[in-house]
Amino acid sequence: MKFKRLTAILLAGIMTASLITGCGINKNETVATLGEQEISLGVVNFICRYQQAVSDDMYSMYFGEGVWQQDLYGNGTTMQENVKQQVVESVHEMYTLKAHMADYNVELTAEDEAKISEAAQSFMEVNSKEALEEIGATQEIVEEVLALYTIQSKMEEAIEADADTEVSDEEANMRAYTMFDIAIDGYTDPETSSTVEFTDEEKEQLKDVAKSIEEAVDNGDTLEKVCEALGYSDGITNGTYDADDDKLDAAVKEALDSLKEGETSALIETDTDLYIVRLDSETDEEATEANRESIIKTRKDELYDSVLEGWQEADGWTVDEKVLSAIEFKNYFTQTTESDTESVENTEAE
Fold it and tell me: Within 13 Å of residue 105, how many CA atoms lie on the same side as its CB?
């Protein structure tokens, strides 16, 4: 699983704390182990509290300052616990990658280490002493976290370099279409927001409209022209699809597959909708190239996940939940803007 990067960690003046009690945890205590590697509570706590710090302003705006103790997703877990579990997974991932650096000849260069040290120092200098204390930041911990994220980036690139990037034109090809679609299963009442089913008579009237559009197109008019004349322009959409598309209705895809460029289908009736489709292009060049890149990215992601899962399958990763419970999102952080403080160049190792 690719956890979100520690965004903006190297930006200046990111946070101040509203009520300071100090980070009352033992940063050197072991919260997890991976083989002989012991993971300090200080590292996990810092990432957790940093995630809190960069999210507090947004969350408090919508949910109030008690958001971290709320069960926003209805899964029986507070936001605080959700973040902590996600961070634990992320830390497991990063230390796994660190343990296998030699497998891909990955290393932190002297230049990487210099940039990490400089960035950590800048982070410590530009944030308030109170906030750093509350978030549990030290030069050593910030350097360790930045090193982990740099290793993750390097390992991700190295692993994904083995992915197959050859995508045939046939596999990447995206065909372009125009579609008329009108629902016959019901509509949403704007006053109550509830769904109202059409009567059988109303359904027949809609089918008559669709058939008149079909007839007009057969006589040489375009879908766009006929729908505009009848007040159904909102029913016209444009799109692209490939051979493996599973989002289009099966009957619609079957009809499109049978068309040649420029041809329009007969009326397609399903239980919920009425369709008429036109194939505009056998190959949409822009969409095809975007699809090619998407296929390659999917292959890279799948390879990365497969390699990581293989390493983690029986790696003996353990978490001390009692130690982890010491991490609490007690206080509220605010972020300053660039106009409030001089920004520091983002120097995270590429």
Answer: 1
Q: What are the tokens at 78?
A: 């507070």
Its domain, for residue 126, covers 16-164+297-334
Amino acid residing at 310: G
Asked if 21 and 160 sit in the same domain, the reply is yes
For residue range 146-188, list pLDDT tens digits in order.
999 999 999 999 999 999 999 999 999 999 999 999 999 998 8
Q: Which residues of the chain have pLDDT under 50?
A: 1-14, 19-22, 338-350
Contacts of 13 (CB under 8 A, 6+ apart): 126, 127, 336, 340, 341, 342, 343
Q: What is the pLDDT of residue 61?
A: 80
Q: Within this chain, do residues 158 and 183 fall inside the same structural domain, yes or no?
A: no
pLDDT value of position 63: 82
What CATH number has the domain bearing residue 271? 3.10.50.40
149 and 199 in a single domain? The answer is: no
- Alpha-carbon span 277 to 282, nearest angstrom: 14
Q: From its phi and psi, is residue 64 left (phi > 0), alpha (psi between -120 and 50) or beta?
A: left
pLDDT one-digit tens code per residue, 278-314: 999 999 999 999 999 999 999 999 999 999 999 999 9
pTM for the model: 0.82
What is the Cα–Cα distance from 180 to 182, expressed in whole angstroms? 7
The verdict on 233 and 304 lying in the same domain is no
- Dihedral sign for Cα atoms in the order 244, 249, 255, 259: negative
Residues 159 and 214 in one domain: no
**How far is it, in rounded angstroms, from Cα 28 to Cα 136?**
11
**Residue 218 forms part of a structural domain:** yes
CA distance linking residue 57 with residue 235, whole number of Å: 41
Indicate whether 1 belongs to any domain.
no
First to last CA, the chain: 20
- What integer pLDDT is reported at residue 342 of this predicted model? 40
Residue carrying the six token digits 């692993």: 159
- Residue 315, judged by CB atoms within 10 A of its CB (0-12, 13-18, 19+), counts as middle
Structural domain count of the chain: 2
**Token pair for residue 297?**
């990215």
